[in-house]
Amino acid sequence: MTRKFFGTDGVRGTANIEPMTAETAMKLGMAAGRYFTRGDHRHTVVIGKDTRLSGYMLEPALTAGFISMGMDVVLLGPLPTPAVAMLTRSLRADLGVMISASHNPYEDNGIKLFGPDGFKLNDEAELEIEASMINGVSEHLVPSKRLGRARRLDDAVGRYIEYVKSTFPRGLRLDGLKIVIDCANGAAYKTAPKVLWELGAEIVPVGVEPDGTNINKNCGSLSTEALRTQVITHGADLGIALDGDADRVALCDENGVMVDGDQVMALIGSLLYRQGLLKGNAVVATVMSNLGLERYFASQGIKLLRANVGDRYVLEMMRQGGYNFGGEQSGHIILSDHSTTGDGLVAALQALAAVVEAGKPASQVLRLFHPLPQVLKNIRVPSEMIVPVLESPEVLKVISVAEAKLEGAGRLLIRKSGTEPLIRVMAEGDSLPYISGVADEIIAAMAKVAGVNK
């Protein structure tokens, strides 16, 4: 069945335009409510959101849909995505819902679903819910006496704060550290500063004044200039930037130099390995992670496994192989001993623990390998031409020659975009001019076959 609503991370789109309308949100609540109604017990769903203006529209619409199916609704208010996953399990709820479009601007919004185990839904579950949304569930509406009820959980923020603090190594404190924390005017604007302060840090908060329209605006993990400036201005020991729903993180050292998810994975992965806590002596990353990370792990005796792009695919490989650590270059870091999804704040605390234990400046702790030069080039082609271009003999021949040139000294990754009519060409190797030329040759071959300008 072709997907109509669900994408790679739930349902997402521009607020008040299909599928991000109140009507579709209510249908999703009804369909998901039907899917997760199993047994005779009183069913419960927890709903969290970030700080977008459209959350005020989508939250009551979802609530109405769930109540009409006989489910009680627990409203959490603004909370990070991993908090929703955690509270779904903690409250023994049948379903968890997060209203957020993550790092996107405020005009967008999305709906993510978590099963009772706190994990995101698999493809089969999403397709069955989609089918119910399309076909309707009116025959499953409960009688009036069985309608659900809605209530707010007043201590949701406190519960998550205590959970996050429990992931920090016992006996360690952040006393003496000055930390800039950028919450992207998003879901963690209350929780992240409190966690760091309660663990002893002196904090400089940034992006903690949400107004419904400023989430991720010139702040957060994808716009780090404000973070870097504040670190330098305040003479901070390091900076932490979260995205709108706080499931990804970016760090910077005391010099304002950024550290990406690959370096964070190198730090935490090697630490877990030395402690004997890295299951399978392996870390799950994606095809986008730098070859320098793979070489570093190999030197430590750690295997780097690569999943498709997307934290759900990283987690899927982790669960299938029994691994407990993985992530993405973009800053989604998953520590499955603590959380069922990426948690930017939990990951940041593990990096902070390493800094505290080393007793050295962040610049000497947060970088364990030199990343290889990496170029990413895109070519826009008509949607109907993407597959013919990728399968054309001319393009395949150029790719084959390029792979032979890079064998043992680099990598080549070619994939179609999941959101735009683009083909992405990533080349990686020891020489930036060389890999850039390799990528250009491939782009030129694709442009010729597609009949477009490169």
Secondary-structure map with pairings?
Layout: E1 6-7, E2 10-14, H1 22-35, E3 44-49, H2 55-68, E4 72-78, H3 81-90, E5 95-99, E6 108-114, H4 123-135, E7 150-152, H5 156-166, E8 178-182, H6 191-198, E9 202-206, H7 225-234, E10 238-242, E11 249-252, E12 258-259, H8 261-274, E13 282-286, H9 291-300, E14 303-307, H10 311-321, E15 325-327, E16 333-335, H11 344-358, H12 362-365, E17 374-380, H13 386-391, H14 393-406, E18 410-416, E19 422-429, H15 432-450
Parallel strand pairs: 3-4, 3-5, 4-7, 8-9, 8-10, 13-14
Antiparallel strand pairs: 1-2, 2-6, 5-6, 10-11, 11-12, 15-16, 17-19, 18-19
Helix pairs in contact: 1-2, 1-4, 5-6, 8-9, 8-11, 14-15
Describe this structure in words.
- This protein has 15 helices and 19 strands.
- Helix content is 38%, strand content 21%.
- The strands form five sheets. It has a seven-stranded mixed sheet, sandwiched between helices. A five-stranded mixed sheet has the order 9-8-10-11-12, with helices on both faces. It has a three-stranded antiparallel sheet with strand order 17-19-18, covered by helices on one side.
- With 454 residues, the protein is of the alpha/beta class.
- The chain has four domains: 149 residues, Alpha-D-Glucose-1,6-Bisphosphate, subunit A, domain 3 (Alpha-D-Glucose-1,6-Bisphosphate, Chain A, domain 3, 3-Layer(aba) Sandwich), CATH 3.40.120; 100 residues, Alpha-D-Glucose-1,6-Bisphosphate, Chain A, domain 3 (3-Layer(aba) Sandwich); 107 residues, Alpha-D-Glucose-1,6-Bisphosphate, subunit A, domain 3 (Alpha-D-Glucose-1,6-Bisphosphate, Chain A, domain 3); 77 residues, Alpha-D-phosphohexomutase, C-terminal domain (TATA-Binding Protein).
- The radius of gyration is 23 Å and the shape is globular.
- The mean pLDDT is 95.
- Strand 13, helix 9 and strand 14 form a beta-alpha-beta unit.
- Helix 5 packs across helix 6, helix 8 runs parallel beside helix 9 and helix 8 packs across helix 11.
